[in-house]
Amino acid sequence: GQQVMQIPQYQHVQEGEDFTTYCNSSTTLSNIQWYKQRPGGHPVFLIQLVKSGEVKKQKRLTFQFGEAKKNSSLHITATQTTDVGTYFCAGPPDGNQFYFGTGTSLTVIP
Amino acid sequence: DGGITQSPKYLFRKEGQNVTLSCEQNLNHDAMYWYRQDPGQGLRLIYYSQIVNDFQKGDIAEGYSVSREKKESFPLTVTSAQKNPTAFYLCASSIGLGPDHEQFFGPGTRLTVL
Q1: Which of B41, B102, B104, B110 best tests the A interface by mutation, with the highest count of A CBs <10 A?
Q2: CA separation, residue A64 to residues A61, A73, B40 (Å)
Q3: What is the pLDDT along chain A (110 residues), one digit of tens a residue?
Q4: Cis, peptide link before residue B75, omega less than 30° from 0
Q5: Distance from CA of A102 to the nearest CA of B (A)
Q6: Which residues 6+ apart lie within 8 Å of A76 measured at CB?
C-alpha cells in the first residue's frame, strides 16, 4: 500500500528551541491532516491543508503543504514543555482510506 | 458530553482466546474506524465503516472482525488467528468517509495477550 513517511522519528530539543517535522508521500495527496498525540493519550486533530503551497498558523505552530502536494511540514517556534508528544500527518493517497505517517516523537527538555 | 468511548482501557487475555473491544460514539457520525498502534509506529487501519451494516477491510484486517449493527457502535473482535495481537487499539469516527473530514479518536484500549 501507499506510505506516508515522516522524519525524524524522534527529536529532543531544549525548551525554547524550534522544531520541525516533515511528511512525505510517494503520491499526490488531495489534502493532508496533522494530529498530535500526547504520551498515553489519543490523537487529536490539529489542522487540515488542502491547497498547493498552503501555509496555516496556529500560534507557535506553522503548517505547510508542498507545491506538488506530496509533502508537508509542521514547524514549532520556541518549544514549550506542553508541546511534548507525537505528531502525525495523515493523507488519503488513494480515495477514502487515510494513511497515517509514522509520526515524530518530540521531547522537550526543560 | 459528545464523544467516543472505548472500553476497557486495559485488557488482558490468554493466547488463543477471542476478545471484543467496544467502541461507542454519540457524535452522530456515519464513518467509524479501527486502528492499531504499535510502539514507535504510526496508526495502521484495520477496518472502517461508512454506514450501518457496511464495512471495509483496511491494510491489516487479517485476524480481526467487525460489525456495524448500529450507527453508534463499531465493536472489534480480535480473533485467535491474529498472530501478534498485543497492541494499542484506537477507534475513531468522522462525519463522513471522505478525506476532508476530521477524525475524532477514542481513548484507546491497550490489549495484552499473555
Answers
A1: B102
A2: 10, 5, 24
A3: 557 889 999 999 999 999 999 999 888 888 999 999 999 999 999 999 999 999 999 999 999 999 999 999 999 999 999 999 999 999 876 655 678 888 999 999 99
A4: no
A5: 4
A6: A18, A19, A20, A60, A61, A62, A83, A106
